[in-house]
């Protein structure tokens, strides 16, 4: 199926949208709850999950009066603070409990804000259960797009990434065959303009100082290596039925143009707004309606000039590696993503250098024989095998 659809008829929702927020304590999760808080007449939070942030889970469950919660970390699930959950709230433990939240009959929309490959099972379950999926877990589409996209029905998969939300808004009512090129914008991260010699000595603290966005640590490091943009290229390839090489990365330091779509007649549509994730989150929840703004509005008369530049794939090799994985397809993006998750975490812990992230990913890709994607179990095996290989390579490069 396709994410494209005819221009939707805007009909009023019968009662509040019932939402499950998976990963409610992270950056996207907390901003999702803020959108819900601002629109209590339109949204009802019914289910929440966390990895191990039990205090935040209890506070949110009590505030919103949720009926279902899940804690992935079994050790955290023993925290006495969970006794403060509402009396009628059902507690599940483990990864499977999170997936069950995505299948609940009293859930209309699943916000998948889980981090990394771990989010693929919940996303697959939500689409299989015919839920509307508002997803920030780009890795699930990067790794499992061949499995997930056939489950998509028009208007039922809404990207939360600011760039892909922008592209989606630009193609509503358009035909896929009329799209000529996608301009995927990129802030350039904290190291834009530096050379590889300069990158060799940067620290995790340097990399976490993103110039325009406030995000979780994993994605912020991915932004600094441009791996995040590489993942987004593959994501856009699956979502919008475009070849990898028809998706052009455009450095736009101000992060006000969130992406653009160019059509066969040369016309370009762009979606602009503030650098605030609450805007794409709200659009994913409200679609096909638009609600009053939760994000700060932009005074365009007061804005500095908007600038554009080329992404340097030689200096930031992770972007080039992701493009290669996207062109080959199959299980290679899964192997690439697994290696990146291992290397990204190692860099944050001081176990390897910044450029070692690229080296580890490249060596795992070189040792991977891509296969056609056929099942979640196959992807689980590929992910585990690639993580183990990345761990071995990490021990070699860090000596």
UniProtKB/TrEMBL annotation:
Q: Where is 1-deoxy-D-xylulose 5-phosphate annotated to bind?
A: 138, 162-163, 187, 210, 228-229, 232
Q: Which residues form the 1-deoxy-D-xylulose 5-phosphate reductoisomerase C-terminal domain?
A: 157-240
Pfam families named among the record's database cross-references:
DXP_redisom_C (PF08436), DXP_reductoisom (PF02670), DXPR_C (PF13288)
| Keyword annotations from UniProtKB, A to Z | Isoprene biosynthesis, Magnesium, Manganese, Metal-binding, NADP, Oxidoreductase
Reaction(s) catalysed by this chain, per the record, are: 2-C-methyl-D-erythritol 4-phosphate + NADP(+) = 1-deoxy-D-xylulose 5-phosphate + NADPH + H(+)
Quote the SUPFAM superfamilies the UniProt record gives.
1-deoxy-D-xylulose-5-phosphate reductoisomerase, C-terminal domain (SSF69055), Glyceraldehyde-3-phosphate dehydrogenase-like, C-terminal domain (SSF55347), NAD(P)-binding Rossmann-fold domains (SSF51735)
Report which superkingdom the organism of origin falls in. Answer: Bacteria
Q: Any keyword Isomerase?
A: no
**One GO MF term, please?**
1-deoxy-D-xylulose-5-phosphate reductoisomerase activity
Q: What class of enzyme is it?
A: oxidoreductase
Summarize where NADPH binds, as residue positions.
26-28, 137, 139, 216
| Pathway, per record | Isoprenoid biosynthesis; isopentenyl diphosphate biosynthesis via DXP pathway; isopentenyl diphosphate from 1-deoxy-D-xylulose 5-phosphate: step 1/6
The answer to keyword Metal-binding applying to this record is yes
Role description: Catalyzes the NADPH-dependent rearrangement and reduction of 1-deoxy-D-xylulose-5-phosphate (DXP) to 2-C-methyl-D-erythritol 4-phosphate (MEP).
Q: Which family does it belong to?
A: Belongs to the DXR family.
Q: What is this protein called?
A: 1-deoxy-D-xylulose 5-phosphate reductoisomerase
| Lineage, broadest ranks | Bacteria, Bacillati, Actinomycetota, Coriobacteriia, Coriobacteriales
What's the gene?
dxr
